[in-house]
């Protein structure tokens, strides 16, 4: 992880799911407490397959991820998070039937796994079963009311059930998220907005793409349009703050990032960006407070830990 966070594109349904892939415990058996060497070996093997699957998934090798995680499932079939991982790999292979089976297995094994409900909702959403998707996102939020991805997905599903979300615009926007070429991203977002000019999340993603394409003014315009359309879009306020930091407009940056945090008090990247703005503005004590807020939410956050170590020892 870099010391300073990047701009964040809006978390689409599939993007929220992939964000789950960060590593997990291998199985239900605690190796250190197991008295049987053969069981220890099984757990170590499962860990190896899981880790190899994570590497493959991160590289975009979804076939390889499926292969590794299928082998891990044979060793630890009752690992809910592993089943959720396998569902993600199938989902990214566009095998939605198999993905649903794995997400259902994950939910059955651990009814408290919010990520599995969120990912299950995505597959239902793709099938345009919006009411069922809404129910799945609702379960995710009942488990974790701070789960930002599920909150955003719930909102999209509400729009879809009310007939306020164009399915083709959503598809184009999703393709834009998946596209690797920045110009292609921008073109797809513009096509989505031609169909639905009120799609705030797409304006946010367009702004992120324009920013990384070196078009700062266009990025600012897109982010402002996003918050005009949806004043509750925390990501766009955070992104505005990020760009304003780069431009040296620190008071504007602080104001916008604080707006993001008023919307989502658990937004870790916004706290880190706020701290960055405070440091550049000579307000080190306020920066330290912001990083401390990050660590209360995410105790292992590398950005906050490294910067606190750096500035508290001065």
Please describe what this structure looks like.
The N terminus is likely disordered. This protein has 2 domains: 149 residues, Tetratricopeptide repeat domain (Serine Threonine Protein Phosphatase 5, Tetratricopeptide repeat), CATH 1.25.40.10; 125 residues, Tetratricopeptide repeat domain (Serine Threonine Protein Phosphatase 5, Tetratricopeptide repeat). Helix 4 packs antiparallel against helix 5 and helix 16 runs antiparallel to helix 17. 44% of the residues are buried. It is 73% helix and 0% strand. By secondary structure, it is mostly helical.
Q: What keyword list fits this structure?
A:
Serine Threonine Protein Phosphatase 5, Tetratricopeptide repeat, 314 residues, globular, 17 helices, disordered N terminus, mainly alpha, 2 domains, single chain
CATH hierarchy class name of the largest domain:
Mainly Alpha
Q: What profile does the largest beta sheet have?
A: none
**Which radius of gyration do the C-alpha atoms yield?**
21 Å
* Gross CATH architecture of the largest domain: Alpha Horseshoe
Shape: globular
| Pattern of helices and strands | HHHHHHHHHHHHHHHHH
**What class do helices, strands and sheet pairing give?**
mainly alpha
Which percent band covers the strand fraction?
A: under 5%
Give the low-pLDDT segments: 1-43
**SS elements, strand count:** 0
Terminal CA distance? 23 Å
Tally of distinct domains: 2
């Amino acid at each position: 992880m870099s010391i300073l966070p990047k701009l964040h594109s809006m978390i689409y349904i599939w993007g929220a799911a992939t964000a789950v892939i960060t590593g997990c415990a291998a199985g239900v058996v605690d190796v250190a407490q197991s008295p049987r060497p053969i069981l220890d070996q099984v757990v170590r093997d499962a860990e190896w397959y899981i880790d190899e699957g994570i590497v493959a998934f991160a590289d975009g090798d979804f076939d390889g991820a499926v292969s590794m995680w299928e082998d891990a499932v044979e060793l630890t079939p009752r690992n809910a998070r592993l089943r959720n991982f396998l569902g993600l790999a199938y989902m990214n292979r566009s095998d939605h039937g198999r993905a649903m089976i794995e997400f259902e297995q994950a939910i059955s094994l651990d009814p408290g796994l919010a990520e599995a409900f969120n990912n299950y909702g995505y597959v239902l959403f793709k099938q345009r079963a919006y009411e069922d998707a809404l129910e799945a996102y609702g379960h995710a939020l009942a488990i974790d009311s701070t789960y930002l991805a599920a909150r955003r997905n719930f909102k999209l599903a509400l729009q879809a059930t009310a007939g306020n979300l164009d399915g083709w615009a959503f598809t184009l926007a999703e393709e834009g998220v998946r596209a690797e070429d920045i110009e292609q991203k921008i073109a797809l977002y513009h096509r989505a907005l031609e169909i639905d000019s009120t799609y705030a999340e797409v304006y946010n993603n367009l702004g992120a793409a324009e920013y990384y394409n070196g078009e700062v003014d266009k990025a600012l315009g897109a982010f402002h349009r996003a918050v005009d359309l949806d004043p509750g879009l925390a990501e766009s306020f955070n992104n505005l703050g990020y760009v304003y930091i780069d431009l040296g407009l620190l008071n504007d940056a602080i104001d916008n990032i604080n707006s993001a945090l008023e919307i989502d008090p658990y937004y870790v990247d916004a706290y880190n960006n706020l701290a960055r703005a405070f440091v550049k503005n000579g307000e080190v004590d306020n920066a330290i407070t912001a990083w401390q807020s990050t660590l209360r939410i995410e105790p292992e956050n590398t950005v906050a830990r490294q910067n606190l170590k750096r500035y508290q020892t001065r």
